[in-house]
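User: Please fill in residues for this 239-position structure.
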C-alpha cells in the first residue's frame, strides 16, 4: 500500500480491508473508510440493507454480500478467492469495528491462514470511547464483550474477576442493563466504582461514573433506551 501523507491518497492493493463504521454519529465514517467502501469490488456486511444506508443516495461500486455469524465460515473462502484474484474486499459490521463483538474474526483468520493481506481501517469502537471517557484507570483493561444471558453464569464471571487489577469492560443491551447493574451491586458491592456509557456519539449520549449503587439509581431514574457499555474499576479504586 502506498499513501501520500499530504493528501491521504492511497493506492489500494488487493486485500481484505476491515473497515470500522459509525456507532451512531454518521460523520464518524472516516474519509479513508469512505474511499475504500466506494472502491471495493466486494463488501461483506452483516446486513446489506443497513450497510447500503452508508452510501446515502449514491450506490456502492461493488457487490454487497451478507456475512453474519451464521454464514461467516462459509463466506470466508469466497472472500479469500476474490483477494487472491486481485480484488479489493471490504468487511464491515452494522456498527463499529468488525470482529469486536461482531462477525469478522473467522474471515480474518481464514485470510491470514492463506497468507493473504489484511488491513484494518481505524474508526469507531464503542468500548474505546467508553473507556476514554470514563475517568477509570485505562493503563490496563480487560474487554469481555457480552456476558452470557443466564444469571448464574454472569455472577460467576463477576466473581472470577472480583480481584482483577485492571478495568473490566462489558457490552450490554437495553433489555438487561438494569439486571446487570443489580448483579454488580450484589456481587461486587454497592461501593465498587463503575461507569456506564449509553448512546455514545448520538444526541442523547450519556456517561455516568460513580459507585455501582449511585449509577444504578441515576440510570433507573432516567431513560434506559439504547446500547450500553459498562466498565468496572479495580477493587479499591476511588474517584
Ligand atoms: N463492533 C462494535 C464495536 O466496535 O463497538 C460492537 C458491536 S456489538 C454487536 C453492539 C454493542 O456495542 C451494543 O450492545 C453496546 O453494548 C455497544 N455499543 C454499540 N454502539 C454503542 C453506542 N453508540 N453507545 C454505547 N454502546 C454501544
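Assistant: Residues filled in for all 239 positions:
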Amino acid at each position: 500500500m502506498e499513501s501520500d501523507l499530504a493528501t491521504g491518497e492511497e493506492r489500494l492493493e488487493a486485500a481484505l480491508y476491515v473497515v470500522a463504521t459509525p456507532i451512531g454519529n454518521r460523520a464518524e465514517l472516516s474519509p479513508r473508510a469512505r474511499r475504500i467502501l466506494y472502491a471495493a469490488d466486494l463488501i461483506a456486511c452483516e446486513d446489506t440493507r443497513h450497510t447500503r444506508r452508508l452510501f446515502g443516495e449514491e450506490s456502492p461500486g461493488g457487490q454487497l454480500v451478507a456475512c453474519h455469524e451464521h454464514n461467516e465460515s462459509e463466506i470466508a473462502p469466497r472472500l479469500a478467492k476474490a483477494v487472491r484474484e486481485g480484488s479489493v474486499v471490504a468487511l464491515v459490521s452494522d456498527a463499529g469495528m468488525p470482529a469486536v463483538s461482531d462477525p469478522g474474526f473467522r474471515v480474518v483468520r481464514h485470510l491470514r491462514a492463506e497468507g493473504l493481506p489484511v488491513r484494518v481501517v481505524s474508526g469507531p469502537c464503542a468500548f474505546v470511547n467508553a473507556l476514554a471517557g470514563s475517568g477509570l484507570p485505562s493503563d490496563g483493561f480487560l474487554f469481555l464483550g457480552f456476558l452470557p444471558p443466564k444469571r448464574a453464569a454472569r455472577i460467576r464471571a463477576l466473581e472470577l474477576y472480583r480481584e482483577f487489577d485492571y478495568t473490566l469492560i462489558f457490552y450490554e443491551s437495553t433489555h438487561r442493563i438494569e439486571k446487570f447493574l443489580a448483579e454488580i451491586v450484589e456481587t461486587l458491592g454497592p461501593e465498587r466504582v463503575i461507569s456506564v456509557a449509553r448512546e455514545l456519539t448520538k444526541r442523547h449520549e450519556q456517561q455516568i461514573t460513580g459507585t455501582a449503587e449511585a449509577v444504578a439509581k441515576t440510570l433507573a431514574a432516567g431513560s434506559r433506551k439504547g446500547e450500553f457499555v459498562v466498565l468496572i474499576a479495580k477493587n479499591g479504586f476511588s474517584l
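For context: Residues 23-24, 93, 95-97, 100-102, 125-127, 171-173, 197-202, 227-229 surround S-adenosylmethionine (CB under 6 Å).
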